[in-house]
Specification:
alpha/beta, D-Maltodextrin-Binding Protein, domain 2, 5-stranded mixed sheet, about 300 residues
Length: about 300
């Protein structure tokens, strides 16, 4: 009941009526048009958008292609056109189009400058891949601790590494090779997914060690509920409530989604920072595991 309640509360709070908060939006127009458009959008919601002005449509296209902004309003004579990255997901593009249309008082056409691949029509494949790997890593850790609770850390790390590598290859084969749903290269997909699988298994293991019998529900809430809800796979972090959005910068699923998406569509703009987050989580969990093993080893002779 507790896990179900948390799941329903978090997901409904995050997605029942999403509204943008500090959503980046580019504008390429003369000062008068840009100021009028910004004022109209700010009047709708004062904290909804953060505006970035660009000197030309080409500069705005380049910013979109490198994931600096998801879309940009471009002045073409007396009308505005919304250049948008379809790879950000249909919900993001439609939200920005609706806001722009309301602000200028007439329909705003959309030009998709970074379209989704044919195998990912709704832009959710990255989220599904991430969710599946997080779930598998959680179940792997639970099963391994139930089967071999006193397994040496080196053997446990080796088993996690094998599981992580197999997960990465499996997702890359299905998502990249078979379905063409993950456009990043096979090696990139396999590497990022392997890191996510390793992090999830290691983090779940730490929570199981620290929390004991409560470790399973705690790990499911932290990794499966909060981790996946803030991953940005369904909606960008800017659409999350302010109390949830900070997690999108530090949680492993969010880092993996960000890395897979930018590697496939946005010239690997955020891959390095996302991979560093995953590596930091992995190393941190392993250090905690070492400390727990060391502490347990010191207590055993004392108890004897």
């Amino acid at each position: 009941m507790a896990i179900g309640t948390v799941f329903v509360a978090v997901y409904l709070a995050a997605f029942h009526a999403p509204t943008p908060h500090h959503q980046p939006l580019g504008i390429s127009a003369d000062d008068q048009v840009a100021a009028r458009t910004e004022l109209a959008l700010n009047t709708m919601a004062s904290d909804a958008y953060v505006f970035h002005r660009y000197p030309s449509a080409d500069a705005a296209r380049d910013a979109i292609a490198h994931d600096q902004v998801p879309a940009a309003l471009i002045a073409h004579g007396h009308r505005l056109v919304l250049l948008a990255a379809g790879a950000q997901g249909p919900s993001t593009v439609s939200s920005l189009q609706a806001a722009a249309t309301h602000a200028v008082g007439r329909p705003v056409a959309v030009e998709d400058v970074v379209p989704l691949v044919p195998g990912d029509a709704r832009g959710l494949s990255v989220f599904y891949a991430s969710f599946g790997v997080v779930l598998a890593g959680f179940l792997f850790s639970v099963a391994s601790y139930q089967i071999a609770p006193r397994l040496a850390l080196t053997a446990r790390m080796a088993s996690m590494a094998v599981f992580a590598a197999a997960s990465g290859v499996m997702v890359a084969l299905i998502g990249h090779q078979m379905l063409d749903a993950l456009p990043a290269s096979f090696v990139t997909v396999a590497a990022i997914v392997s890191l996510l699988a390793m992090v999830t298994a290691a983090a779940a293991g730490v929570l199981l060690r620290i929390c004991g019998p409560l470790g399973m529900p705690v790990a499911s809430v932290v990794l499966l509920i909060f981790g996946n809800a803030t991953s940005g796979g369904i909606l960008p972090p800017e659409f999350l409530p302010p109390w949830l959005s900070p997690l999108s910068h530090v949680m492993p699923p969010a880092a993996a989604v960000r890395a897979l998406r930018t590697a496939g569509y946005f010239h690997s703009a955020h891959v390095t920072s996302a991979v560093l987050v995953l590596i930091a989580w992995t190393l941190g969990c392993l250090v905690i595991q070492l400390a727990l093993d060391f502490s347990a080893g010191r207590r055993e002779p004392t108890a004897a």
